[in-house]
Design brief:
about 240 residues; alpha/beta; 7-stranded mixed β-sheet; 9 helices; about 30% helix
């Protein structure tokens, strides 16, 4: 007699509201990125691996036309106005036509794939010529001790590897930087050395109790890149 255990929804389990309550951070990040990259109102943005939908909601509040795709449909609860599609991003092509989106955003997604280059190619396909991709992943140099605490993490990234995966697949103007998830730093970047000091001297045991300690130590990589304008003609 065999027994197959039921597989539960990854987003529902790992991002349940009790353990990870909703905060204002996604709205703040969406506003920051919209301003920094001058995302025009009405632009079509795809949140790739949109999870619970907090970041997609933030972009919609900034005036963008929101779309989301994920293995889960939980995002529909807080983004009823957005088109949310369910898809196995690891094994299926993105369920969109070529040249569909002005912007594609993902946060903490690429590192979950054995072959992230497949997804990078799909992003290229569904971006409009001249379209922008914004990607955030954990910085391996900063989080290598805890990276595999999430058993679904597959591919770690450094500044060099994240830059190269976009360059190799035909993107232009690729930029990658280390990025701390502390909103006050976005307005006052000269305080980054202070956070570097906190990251160095503070014990990891303080992370659950101090956002300053946690997000000084848990650095992300922020990448941006463009699909060439001439890509519609098959040129690079």
């Amino acid at each position: 007699m065999s027994f197959e255990s039921p597989q539960r929804d990854y987003v529902a389990v790992t991002y349940n509201e009790k353990d990870r309550p909703f905060t204002q951070y996604p709205d703040k990040l969406a506003r920051y990125l919209s301003s920094r990259y001058e995302l025009a109102a009405g632009s079509r943005i795809l949140d790739l691996g949109c999870g619970r939908g907090e970041f997609l909601r933030g972009f919609i509040q900034c005036g963008l036309s929101g779309y989301g795709v994920d293995q889960s449909l939980i995002a529909k609860a807080i983004c009823p106005e957005a088109e949310i599609l369910q898809s196995d991003l690891e094994n299926e092509p993105l369920p969109y036509r070529d040249d569909s989106f002005d912007v594609i955003y993902s946060k903490s997604v690429l590192e979950h794939f054995y072959y992230p280059e497949k997804l990078v190619r799909e992003i290229y396909r569904v971006l409009k010529p001249g379209g922008l991709v914004i990607t955030m992943v954990p910085d391996w140099e900063a989080v290598y001790q805890t990276f595999y605490e999430d058993y679904t993490h597959r591919t770690p990234f450094t500044v060099a590897s994240l830059r190269d995966i976009f360059l190799i697949h035909g993107y232009d103007d690729v930029k990658v930087e280390k990025f701390r998830q502390l909103p006050f730093l976005w307005s006052f970047p000269w305080l980054n050395p202070l956070c570097s000091l906190v990251a160095f001297i503070a014990p990891r045991s303080l992370r659950p109790y101090s956002k300053l300690v946690r997000f000084s130590q848990e650095i992300m990589l922020l990448a941006s890149a463009y699909k060439p304008d001439n890509a519609l003609r098959g040129e690079k």
